């Protein structure tokens, strides 16, 4: 566990929270046609990429067509997953009162049923962010991502599980609601999750039939090109979303918390925990778009129901407030942040008593600071 060396009194936390609330109230009052036009443009672009990509895959016997079609389809799946599905299901556009993008009913193009995601992610993760034993996103019930997770020989496979989770990420997310760690411990039985399994199977079967049966069959003699194109596009989406999400939660400097530490939290203390448990990624506009603006994970954890396109505008203001209160504002480029995530995965493979080479023990304090 990365232990917190920064503390705020109750009064300081409440003052911190009031300043953060002021940002939210101002931005939410400004929402309007510009935000509505933005999400409609993104949806239109995603659909154009998907249609164009699938059409090119039908001509996949020509290598340039296969490569371009696969890339376009992969980008469409990334947009659907990150900037559209994830953000819409947070209710970021519910104020528009458009049934097609309602957070309560939207369904996305991935194996995880949207209703299960709304519970495991929107409620469990965003309420109990980085609280060991309550936030199941810490390791997804598969990995050891905190020293406060008791070591077991099972975790000797930590790097292997991490790689498999990355390439099969949509299925790992789909199985999230199964609470596999509770099944392994004997706390619950698999049959207790019968309804969850039924919903996962129904959604996964539909996705599998669409990408690996229906579209390849429509391509006739070019079926192998469509099949491999769809598989590669899904792999692109899985690896990208895994990297963005893990870099927002687990790089050096992010902190985990115990249940005891978070009892009787005030709103300001909840905000404080969200900042300490998150990390941002630096990059340009296209990078932020393809990340679903989860490159601004700090702002997302503070304001999950705010349209994500607004995060880049308010990030400097949030950072300035954090600096005044002495609250660390963790940010850095993707390669650097992901490198520390990989190091943490490898380090936590072994019991805490085992000393690893200094490279793997390198702390966040030892890294060169990233310019603001």
UniProtKB/TrEMBL annotation:
> What domain of life does the UniProt record list for this protein's source?
Bacteria
Keyword check for Membrane, yes or no.
Answer: yes
One BP term from GO: lipid metabolic process
| Gene Ontology MF: a single term | oxidoreductase activity, acting on paired donors, with oxidation of a pair of donors resulting in the reduction of molecular oxygen to two molecules of water
Q: Where does the chain cross the membrane?
A: 55-75, 154-173, 212-233
Q: Where is the Fatty acid desaturase domain?
A: 65-331
Q: Which keywords does UniProt give here? A: Membrane, Transmembrane, Transmembrane helix
This protein's GO CC annotations: membrane
Q: Which Pfam families match?
A: FA_desaturase
Any keyword Acetylation?
no
Q: Which InterPro entries match?
A: FA_desaturase_dom, Fatty_acid_desaturase
Q: Which PANTHER family match?
A: ACYL-COA DELTA-9-DESATURASE, DESB, FATTY ACID DESATURASE 2
Q: What is this protein called?
A: Fatty acid desaturase
């Amino acid at each position: 566990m990365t232990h917190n060396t920064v503390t705020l009194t109750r009064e300081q936390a409440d003052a911190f929270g009031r300043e953060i609330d002021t940002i939210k109230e101002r931005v939410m009052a400004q929402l309007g046609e510009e935000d509505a036009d933005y999400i409609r443009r993104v949806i239109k672009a995603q659909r154009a990429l998907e249609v164009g990509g699938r059409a090119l895959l039908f001509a996949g016997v020509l290598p340039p067509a296969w490569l371009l079609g696969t890339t376009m389809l992969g980008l469409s799946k990334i947009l659907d997953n990150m900037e559209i599905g994830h953000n819409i299901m947070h209710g970021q556009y519910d104020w528009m009162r458009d049934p097609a993008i309602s957070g309560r009913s939207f369904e996305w193009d991935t194996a995880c049923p949207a209703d299960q995601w709304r519970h495991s992610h929107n409620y469990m993760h965003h309420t109990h962010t980085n609280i060991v034993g309550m936030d199941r996103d810490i390791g997804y019930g598969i990995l050891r991502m905190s020293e406060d997770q008791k070591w077991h020989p099972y975790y000797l496979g930590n790097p292997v599980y991490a790689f498999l989770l990355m390439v099969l990420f949509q299925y790992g997310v789909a199985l999230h609601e199964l609470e596999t760690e509770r099944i392994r411990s004997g706390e619950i039985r698999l049959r207790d999750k019968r309804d969850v399994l039924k919903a996962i199977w129904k959604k996964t079967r539909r996705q599998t039939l669409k990408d690996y049966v229906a579209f390849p069959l429509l391509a006739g003699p070019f079926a192998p090109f469509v099949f491999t194109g769809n598989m590669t596009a899904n792999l692109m989406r899985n690896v990208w979303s895994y990297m963005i999400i893990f870099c927002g939660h687990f790089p050096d400097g992010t902190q985990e918390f115990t249940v005891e530490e978070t009892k009787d939290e005030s709103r300001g203390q909840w905000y404080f925990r969200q900042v300490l448990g998150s990390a941002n990624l630096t990059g340009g506009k296209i990078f932020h778009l393809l990340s679903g603006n989860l490159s601004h994970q700090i702002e997302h954890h503070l304001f999950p129901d705010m349209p994500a396109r607004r995060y880049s505008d308010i990030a400097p203001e949030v950072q300035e407030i954090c600096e005044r209160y002495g609250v660390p504002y963790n940010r850095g480029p993707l390669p650097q942040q992901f490198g520390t995530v990989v190091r943490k995965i490898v380090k936590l493979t072994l019991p805490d008593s085992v000393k690893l080479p200094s490279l793997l023990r390198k702390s966040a304090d030892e890294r060169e600071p990233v310019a603001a």
